[in-house]
Amino acid sequence: MLRLAKEREELSIVSDQYGAPTWSHTIADTTAHIVAQSLVAADQQAWWAERSGLYHLTAQGTTSWFGFTEAIMAHSTVHKKPRLKAILAKDYPVPAQRPANSVLSSRRLIDTFCSLPQWQTALKLCQG
User: Fold this and answer.
1) CA angle, corner 72, sides to 88 and 124, nearest 5?
2) Band of pLDDT at residue 10, cut at 50, 70 and 90
3) Distance between CA atoms of residues 19 and 47, nearest Å
4) Could you read off the pLDDT of 35-55 as tens digits, one per residue?
5) What is the pTM of this model?
6) In the chain, how many domains are there?
7) pLDDT band at residue 128 using 50, 70 and 90 as cut-offs
8) What are the two backbone dihedrals, phi and then psi, of residue 101, each rounded to the nearest 5 degrees?
9) Among residues 58, 120, 64, which one has the least CA distance to residue 92?
10) CATH code at position 34
11) Domain span at residue 95?
12) 3-class state of residue 88 by DSSP
């Protein structure tokens, strides 16, 4: 988005597909936190056996691609701010169809290991 903002006067952004933007540092930090918890367990094998399974790790909250782009462009370090035009997914050609809602529940991970940040908080940290 930042590169496109520098290159274009207007950006057409999908407004009807929702997700939870998740910064790679959120994934790395959470993973490190979980591994650290395992290292202090008296019986690491039992600790992992009790907690094995499928977990979703995403930032909390939901936004559309359009909402995410608005939040990115609102940051003070973005000097060239193109006009943002909301469009529907059907009007944006992509090779593969994408779901309208790709939000995953991280409830099991949160209940088992630790809390996760809101996507807006992670974005602020990412932007510095």
Assistant:
1) 135
2) very high
3) 32
4) 999 999 999 999 999 999 999
5) 0.88
6) 1
7) confident
8) -135, 110
9) 64
10) 3.40.50.720
11) 2-127
12) coil
| Spatial distance between the Cα atoms of 28 and 58, rounded to a whole number of angstroms | 11
Sort 30 into a burial class: Cβ within 10 Å, 0-12 / 13-18 / 19+: buried
Taking the C-alpha atoms of residue 69 and residue 21, their distance in angstroms, rounded to an integer, is: 11
C-alpha closest to that of 59 among 48, 47, 70, 68: 68
17 vs 66: CA distance, rounded Å: 9
Tokens 């974005």 belong to residue: 123
CA distance 36 to 32: 6
Q: Which structure tokens are listed for 52?
A: 């094995």
Q: Are 13 and 84 in contact (CB under 8 A)?
A: yes
